[in-house]
Every structure is written in structure tokens, then in C-alpha cells.
């Protein structure tokens, strides 16, 4: 066991505070990672404030982890000391179900994936996330960060990057396809970058035009305000894919009207409250509403390699650990462009 410094929420909705946690000893299949940077995902806030239901406390959030290997177990062959690596939203799964064998560990049917924090591992111990100095993870759930990506801008890719890359690939975003990205935040800004790099024509749908210059700079071909009712009239039947990145209820009927025949609206943001969908919104054009959850380990590595090839890092604001609570409030207020990243050397 190793004692490391970390930032934890001691109770629901309580400010995060500096503390210490225990990391397990490095087993034969494990990798010990010196965490260099940890992104702040809105999911961290939903869980630390129990917006998604009852959680476990104290909680050390953080599932956008970038760091350097400092020790490897005796059976590990894929990593060595000094390697630049990342850890995303999960640190284990059953490994034997059809989904795990297909590299879709995020959809594990053998008890579900073991999340990086706010979960219980197979050993019966609580998992604690990346707002910490170090983490021990089974090597099978660690990915390599290519040299072409700086660690600070790579950290958010372990959630925001794969959460948008996976559905864009699955629904075949590329040349000849029109993609709308709803929301230009931590997820949305990566959705724009990735959809553009895949060759799709990209439109941002945002409440206002406040971030229009940013959206166009990041790769959008068009930027429309959803507060303007003419947007929904002018764009009716336009898109093959709508990637909804916001975690708030929407007028689904209005957004579904923007899809072409056989178009799909894919939701990657998770509202804390129920949403209402009229079935009549689907009829006539074989439209669909779906969802997507992160990506498996092979696809996460594919995403990192793709981002390195195309020079796609997250747009970040680097902060010290003592500003985490301030950052949480600013994320809720949409006051970040576009991802807070903690310099873990300040923990």
C-alpha cells in the first residue's frame, strides 16, 4: 500500500479538500502511474454533488488522467517505466462477456465496468480517481499517449475525446455527412474538432452566438443560435447526425426535425432530470434517438492516435488544485473554455 495526497469530497455537495488515500501495492499485472494532469469533467460534479443519485464518500473524482509510468508489475509487457500513459473512465471489467471480448468494455454485461472512482473493484475496495498524486491500474485498462500530444491537453481526451469520437465513428461521420454538435463546452468543442478532422461538414447549435468565433476556429462550418426560432426552420431536415453534448433537457421534437431521413440524434450528455420525447417526432423519416457511452480500450487508443495525427488536443485552462471548488462552480456556470485541467504537482 502507498499513501498519496489527493483532493476529495468528504460528503455530497461539500467542498473538495486535500486529504490522503491509500493505493494498493503494484500487482503483477498492474502499472503505477505518477499522475501529471487530471481533467475536470462535468461528470465529476454530477457525482460529487449527487446529481445522479446516491454516491460513496469520501470521493476522489477524476477520470481524465495523464501521467508517466513509475513502476510495472512482473507480468506487464506493454508498458515500461517512463512511458506516457492515460487512464479514462474505467479501470476494470469482467473481461469474459461478448462485449469485453469485442473490446467494448464500456458495455460490459458481466457486472458492468469498474469505474475509475465512486465504484467498488473486484477486490472489494473502493476506487479513487485522478485528483491525486498517483494511481495503480491494471495494465489492460491503461492507454499510451502518443508523443505528439502534450500531457495537459491529452488528459481531457480520456473522457471528452473518446465520448465524442466513439459515436462519430459509429454513425459514420465523414466526407459527405452533415453533423450538428449541440453545445460548445468540454464535450462539444472536442466533438467539433473530431467531426471536422473526420471530414464531415460541422454545424454548432448553441443557445447563443457568444462562442461563434471559437466554434469556427475549432473547425465548424456554421454556427447557429437555438434561441432564434428561425434556426429550426432554416435547418429542417439538414443533418445526418446530431451529437447532443449538453446535460440538460431539450425540446427533442424540435431537434429531431433537423434530421434527414435515417438521421440519428446521439446523446452523450446525461441530464439529472427526466426528459420528455414525443413518439410522433420520429414518424415519417425513420429518425432515431440513441446514446453512446465513452469507448472501449482499443477505441480509446485509436482515438488518441487519431488526435495525435491531426494535432487535436483539448482547449484547456490549467489550474492548481486549490482552485478545484472554484472550477466546479465555473463549469456549472459554463464559464470555462473549454476544460479545466488540474496540475497535480500542486496537490
Automatic annotation (TrEMBL):
<comment type="similarity">
    <text>Belongs to the zinc-containing alcohol dehydrogenase family.</text>
</comment>
<dbReference type="InterPro" id="IPR011032">
    <property type="entry name" value="GroES-like_sf"/>
</dbReference>
<dbReference type="Pfam" id="PF08240">
    <property type="entry name" value="ADH_N"/>
</dbReference>
<protein>
    <recommendedName>
        <fullName>alcohol dehydrogenase (NADP(+))</fullName>
        <ecNumber>1.1.1.2</ecNumber>
    </recommendedName>
</protein>
<keyword id="KW-0862">Zinc</keyword>
<dbReference type="GO" id="GO:0008106">
    <property type="term" value="F:alcohol dehydrogenase (NADP+) activity"/>
</dbReference>
<dbReference type="InterPro" id="IPR013149">
    <property type="entry name" value="ADH-like_C"/>
</dbReference>
<dbReference type="InterPro" id="IPR047109">
    <property type="entry name" value="CAD-like"/>
</dbReference>
<feature type="domain" description="Enoyl reductase (ER)">
    <location>
        <begin position="14"/>
        <end position="342"/>
    </location>
</feature>
<dbReference type="InterPro" id="IPR020843">
    <property type="entry name" value="ER"/>
</dbReference>
<dbReference type="InterPro" id="IPR002328">
    <property type="entry name" value="ADH_Zn_CS"/>
</dbReference>
<keyword id="KW-0560">Oxidoreductase</keyword>
<dbReference type="Pfam" id="PF00107">
    <property type="entry name" value="ADH_zinc_N"/>
</dbReference>
<dbReference type="GO" id="GO:0008270">
    <property type="term" value="F:zinc ion binding"/>
</dbReference>
<dbReference type="InterPro" id="IPR036291">
    <property type="entry name" value="NAD(P)-bd_dom_sf"/>
</dbReference>
<keyword id="KW-0479">Metal-binding</keyword>
<dbReference type="InterPro" id="IPR013154">
    <property type="entry name" value="ADH-like_N"/>
</dbReference>
